[in-house]
Amino acid sequence: MKSTLPTTAKFDVPYLKESLKDLFGETSGTPEIISMTGDASDRRYFRISFSTADVEPGSIVIMQLSSPIANGDNDFIQISRYLQNLKLRVPRIHKIDSEKGLLHLEDCGDETLSDRLLSMPHEQEKLYSQAITELVQLQTRAHNAPFTRRFDVEKLMWEMEFMLTHYIEGLLKTPLSSKQRENWAQELLPLCQLLSEQPLYFVHRDFHSRNLMVHNDELIWIDFQDARLGPCQYDLASLLRDSYVTLDEPFRIKMIDLFLELHSVEGNTLDREEFLKIFDWMSIQRNLKAIGTFSFQKCEKKSDRYLQYIAPTLNYVHQALSRRPELSGLSRLLQDFTPA
Length: 340
Prior knowledge:
Shape: globular
Largest sheet: 5 strands, antiparallel
Strand order of the largest sheet: 1-2-3-5-4
Helix content: 40-55%
């Protein structure tokens, strides 16, 4: 195989050959190295393909972090172990190189849930039902999470300030006066306060169609290192009001009802009307946060990659606000400051 070592890699071919030998035995030829499309973070991913004398060609994925791994442990490693103990499928960790900040991970392929839906749309209900079943399994069985961080008012409002800075002021080039900032805070603070008061569950935080890999008929969870405690509606809103996949409303309601039914089976009956209210409020905050992230990528990282997802995400916000007259002030502000 021909090796094409990316300039951003913190490793070289001899390092790879030695690592692969430790993991899989003697390899033949030179490993092939391919840079993979990453997420909206400073992590880098590389697929390493190789051949050995005893097995068919194999591959691993190297996650490259921006800094060394202190004491050989970090959020990704801790949460990976935690989710595995709950029988949820995550990429296996083959090796941790703390000094270089490298994790050698199981290669779970390239097919995300969003990819599978494009190629096999008839599997939509099966796949979403599977994802929601696993989500409820997490929420009803996750105790003693390996962290205490949560979606408190400060965190939720910081995300809204981030949205104002990078979307309204940055992408839309609409400077906000101190009075206008106060007006936004006056409408956003009650939203964030109510969300912060909800019962706490384990929250993946980015539980959407691009962070679920479909591999050998399994859903494999990725990008979970930023998990924290928050409302049970958070991950469901991420999945069903997804910036990358638009679902029709009847299907979305069907999946919400499945979620509520599965919680009830686990002995956790949730009031449907109140649940739907918090689902809308949570999706408003979550989608506004996503718009801020997409705008940050454009304004600060000079990446156009996420611009196309702002309009559908903003549409989710308008739809949810139209159902919640108690948030009419926020709805008016959004209409005043965003494109029609």
